[in-house]
Write a structure and sequence with these properties.
By secondary structure, the protein is mainly α. It has helices at residues 3-38, 45-79, 110-122, 127-135, 140-144, 147-158. Helix 3 packs parallel to helix 6 (147-158) and helix 4 (127-135) runs antiparallel to helix 6.
Length: 160
């Protein structure tokens, strides 16, 4: 296996870890949203602060993983007696490293993405919670295209 293949493997492992961190982040956020909506303090600053704390912890995990990737690549380069160059760590594919609250699969058609998001948002306790999440999502319109308006209508009609 060449050095480039080893580096690509390390980068792929890091991408998988970061994607798993994102899934855990969204699970934690959803738990907090559901907990606080049951307590009827969904729109409070308490919830916003909790979600921000979870997001900051996630960002710390991502930065630590990127740093570990950089160190692993540098160790690999040293073991192969190659000159160390500046390692390019891949960013997340979303605007401003934003992580959506749903799994993203760009290989799906727009219609399949729409159905997947319908399933995702059916798990929300109220339409207000789902619509707030949709309104704050900076990636969803790009992800769904013209199906975005259909998703909003679906949430309004189907959720309590």
């Amino acid at each position: 296996m060449s050095i480039q293949e080893k580096i690509e493997n390390l980068k792929n492992e890091a991408k998988i870890d970061i994607a798993n961190y994102a899934k855990l982040l969204k699970k934690e956020q959803l738990k907090k949203i559901q907990l606080y909506s049951k307590k009827r303090i969904y729109r409070s600053s308490i919830l916003c602060n909790k979600l921000l704390e979870i997001e900051q912890a996630y960002q710390i995990q991502v930065e630590k993983r990127k740093e570990k990737l950089k160190q692993d690549i540098q160790k690999l380069q040293q073991s192969e007696n190659l000159p160390e160059d500046d390692v390019n760590i891949p960013d997340l594919p979303f605007p401003d490293n934003y992580i959506p609250p749903y799994p993203v699969d760009m290989t799906l058609s727009l219609q399949e993405r729409y159905y997947a998001l319908c399933e995702h948002y059916k798990s929300y306790p109220t339409k207000e919670a789902a619509l707030a999440e949709i309104d704050n999502d900076i990636f969803i319109q790009e992800y769904l295209g013209f199906y975005y308006t259909y998703l909003r209508q679906y949430v309004i009609v189907k959720l309590p």
